[in-house]
Amino acid sequence: MTSEPAQMPVRLGVVGLGRGFMLMIPTFTADPRVKLVAAAAPRAESRAAFEAEFGGRTYDDIVPLCADPEVEAVYIATPHQMHADHVCTALAAGKHVLVDKPIAISMADADRMVAAAEASSKHLIVGPSHSFDPPVEAAARLIESGEVGSLRMIQAFNYTDFLYRPRRPEELRTEEGGGILFSQAIHQIDVVRRLAGGLATRVTAMTGAWDPARPTEGAFSALIAFANGSFASLTYSGYAHFDSDVWMDNVGELGQRKDPAAYGKARRALQGLDAEAEAALKQTRTYGSGAGLIEAENNEHFGPVIALCDRADLRLTPAGLDVFGDIERRFVEVPFGPAPRGPVIDALVGAVREDRAPAQTGAWGRASLEICHAILESAASGQPVDLQRQCGIT
Ligand SMILES: NC(=O)c1ccc[n+]([C@@H]2O[C@H](COP(=O)([O-])OP(=O)(O)OC[C@H]3O[C@@H](n4cnc5c(N)ncnc54)[C@H](O)[C@@H]3O)[C@@H](O)[C@H]2O)c1
């Protein structure tokens, strides 16, 4: 337990001032329980922007940031392949860590990170992922309460233009963590594990890599069995022409209102660009490049999710839970705000100030990563894959 008074804001250092960090800014700035005091980033323009906006100190490397005594906890938002080294560096320096999803690319790296967290007296949290979304949490609690009977089956579905958003080259190479598995499936896996209690046992899956110009997995379907007897079917397409947000009241993943006039925007923006120009386009959306923030008005979501229980079907929406019971239907409102991702700050503050681990620990993140690999393995072999590294809710 820390000696800091419980009401003091958690003093956070950020590593990686890119797109992931930008998506967290509204949450950080809206929540007085956290204060951004330092950042490490290689791009001078992002460091200058951070100093101007937050008044903190900046470094060009993680090591001096972790030696900064003011920093209590570190948010790591660097590319996937750097997570393992950055997390281990921060834990070794005695900092609590929030690492953006996925925990890592390889299971060996995830093992190393979980071991480093266990060997330290600090917490490792993997997030944000959409398992933190308030409607997911509300559904998980309703299921856990027993009020709607046993959970039997979950359907999670998402059609997006993910594969056509501007990318760094490695984001289109599966072995380097590219494609939809490590960046998108991981959200869906986290959501269904949160609802089903976490302990998956077996995965059967097929994947699609159908665009030779973007030669990585862009779609998958998977069937996941859980230790409690329930099962989940997950379908994701990053090739979408259809946008499943129309089934989410036209609210986007980040809680923003979707503009129907933006149809086809992602593919249009990529037309005629080579890899270098595409990476440059991604840079224009990053921190310090003048890009605007997403304005959320609703809870975040990750596509339509329906949880079938013995006495009710639960449909998760950005506004809450549509509960279809035996003889009546009701709506459980889940309020938004003041910014999205408040539960990520709850988790961070709980860990740093109260020594309380959230559901999404390092072991949790490793278990979700195991399912990403199992999906790839099952798709390649045509066989079900038994899981070995699952964990329940702590
Ligand atoms: N949870 C979400 O909604 C969400 C959304 C986007 C990205 N992310 C995650 O954020 C992570 C980064 O992805 P991104 O899209 O922001 O990529 P990005 O390329 O926009 O940002 C990565 C940043 O890391 C910086 N960086 C590179 N090497 C570094 C180093 N050694 N030390 C410090 N900074 C370094 C880069 O300069 C860049 O600004 C990924 O793991 C991704 O999964 C999460």
From TrEMBL:
Pfam family, one: GFO_IDH_MocA
All residue ranges annotated as the Gfo/Idh/MocA-like oxidoreductase N-terminal domain in the record: 11-127
UniProt cross-references to Gene3D superfamilies, sorted A to Z: Dihydrodipicolinate Reductase, domain 2, NAD(P)-binding Rossmann-like Domain
Keyword list, A-Z: Oxidoreductase, Plasmid
InterPro entries assigned: Gfo/Idh/MocA-like_OxRdtase_N (IPR000683), Gfo/Idh/MocA_Oxidoreductases (IPR051450), GFO_IDH_MocA-like_dom (IPR055170), NAD(P)-bd_dom_sf (IPR036291)
SUPFAM superfamilies: Glyceraldehyde-3-phosphate dehydrogenase-like, C-terminal domain (SSF55347), NAD(P)-binding Rossmann-fold domains (SSF51735)
Segments forming domain GFO/IDH/MocA-like oxidoreductase: 137-255
Gene Ontology molecular functions: nucleotide binding; oxidoreductase activity
Domain of life: Bacteria
EC nos: 1.-.-.-
EC class of the enzyme, as a word: oxidoreductase
Protein name as catalogued: Putative 4,5-dihydroxyphthalate dehydrogenase
